[in-house]
Automatic annotation (TrEMBL):
Record bears the keyword Transmembrane helix: yes
Keywords noted in UniProt: Endoplasmic reticulum, ER-Golgi transport, Golgi apparatus, Membrane, Transmembrane, Transmembrane helix, Transport
The protein's name: Endoplasmic reticulum-Golgi intermediate compartment protein
InterPro entries noted in UniProt: Erv, Erv_C, Erv_N
Residues that span the membrane, as ranges: 27-47, 363-384
Species the sequence originates in: Yarrowia lipolytica (strain CLIB 122 / E 150)
Length: 401
């Protein structure tokens, strides 16, 4: 019965007398074994190493809030002058944002002077003077100098006078003639800040709709559907203010460290393209615009952890407010006017990217790869050995002749 199976044997075995062993064949065999071991280890490493694979879907999670993380330095602008405002397409306006934000006052060399937000008229010495002059009097009601919103409104501090002026949309200069400001040396404080810089870092939350946030000089106000800034301090010709800045970090949502992740097909994700980018100008009346497209992103890891965040693409545009022809593009002319500052416009993409951590292949595919590797190496080795043997035989015959 078994003898009938001989005719189906596809692996005929040569007899010991019909085989020839050579030194070159031994070398080729050892090299083939070494190559098989190396390739098998490589296949095993690829099989056991997870990768991130990306896919795009429609973003159905609308109406969420969006956290914006920001760290930016203005080397030539004091903290008391720079204001952060947020305006979105739904009509929501956040003026003079300072919650969850830290302002660090810097000297002209970039050294830290104070880790608190510098608010004019709120240093300890000035508070002591102010308290002795009119805060001790419980009946004191300071004048708002015509900026009262109500008949009996009192402005007992310099900041309250400035706020009343901002509400009216009036410019507030150096506080000369305003007793609440003169008693704390408001004008002298302004002069002392001319060579200071400011670092602003922290997080704020906006609605997940298109909008913008911007840094502009002076106290902001919203009046008659217009967003206004008091530029009276900024436009002082003696003040060397500019909006040169360094963006240390700008990210939307939770920050994810992607440096240690392997990405399928070598396509990595860049979550913060504006990170550590300096932008310089010597022109006080200058405007920087950044236009970002925010894409919702989810990370799903093998351990079950899921992170909801965002990534974004950014383009930049800058122009002098005096208008005129662009120095780098002679065919471009800039419009005249506008508000100096740094403006970030963000738009929300309707798509969502899901980055899922997976193994490159399953166990069956790994076994098939190993078998194919062994078979391929042995086949090539056999062809190589046969070629070396035939060449050796030809050389021997020529030598014998």
């Amino acid at each position: 019965m078994l003898s009938k199976l001989f005719r189906y044997d596809a692996f005929a075995k040569p007899t010991a007398d019909a085989t020839i062993k050579t030194a070159s064949g031994g070398i080729v065999t050892l090299l083939a074994i070494l190559l098989i071991v190396v390739l098998t280890i490589s296949e095993y490493w690829a099989y056991t190493t997870p990768v991130m694979r990306s896919q795009m879907t429609v973003d159905r999670y609308r109406g969420d809030r969006l956290d914006i993380h920001l760290n930016i330095t203005f080397p030539q602008l004091p903290c008391s002058l720079v204001t952060l405002d947020i305006i979105d397409s739904s009509g929501e306006v956040q003026q003079s944002v300072d919650h969850d934000m830290t302002k660090v006052t810097l000297d002209e060399r970039g050294n830290i002077l104070s880790s608190e937000a510098l608010t004019l008229g709120e240093n300890p010495d000035s508070k002591a003077v102010a308290k002795r002059t009119f805060l001790d009097d419980p009946n004191y009601c300071g004048s708002c100098y015509g900026a009262e919103s109500e008949p009996d409104q009192c402005c007992n501090t310099c900041e309250q006078v400035r706020a009343a002026y901002a509400t009216k949309g009036w410019a507030f200069t150096d506080g000369s003639g305003v007793e609440q400001c003169e008693v704390i040396g408001f004008k002298e404080q302004l002069k002392a800040q001319y060579n200071q810089g400011c670092n602003i870092a922290g997080k704020f939350t906006v609605q997940k709709v298109a909008g913008n946030f911007h840094f502009a000089p002076g106290v902001s106000s919203h009046r008659d559907e217009q967003h206004l800034h008091d530029l009276s301090h900024f436009k002082d010709p003696e003040a060397p203010f500019t909006f040169s800045h360094i963006i240390h970090d700008l990210s939307f949502g939770e920050q994810v460290d992607v440096s240690g992740l392997d990405w399928d097909k070598g396509v990595a994700m860049e979550t913060s393209p504006l990170e550590n980018t300096p932008h310089h100008t010597d022109n006080k009346w200058f405007r920087f615009n950044y236009f970002t497209k925010v894409v919702s992103t989810r990370f799903e890891f093998l351990d079950g952890k899921k992170i909801e965040t965002n990534q974004y693409a950014a383009t930049a545009h800058e122009r002098p407010l005096q208008g005129g022809r662009d120095e780098d593009h002679q065919n471009t002319r800039h419009m005249r006017g506008g508000l100096p500052g740094v403006f970030f416009s963000y738009d929300i993409s309707p798509m969502r990217i899901v980055n899922k951590q997976e193994y490159r292949s399953h166990f069956g595919a790994f076994v098939m790869q190993v078998v194919a590797t062994i078979g391929g190496v042995l086949t090539v080795a056999a062809v190589l050995d046969r070629g070396i043997y035939e060449v050796d035989q030809v050389l021997k015959r020529k030598k014998d002749q």
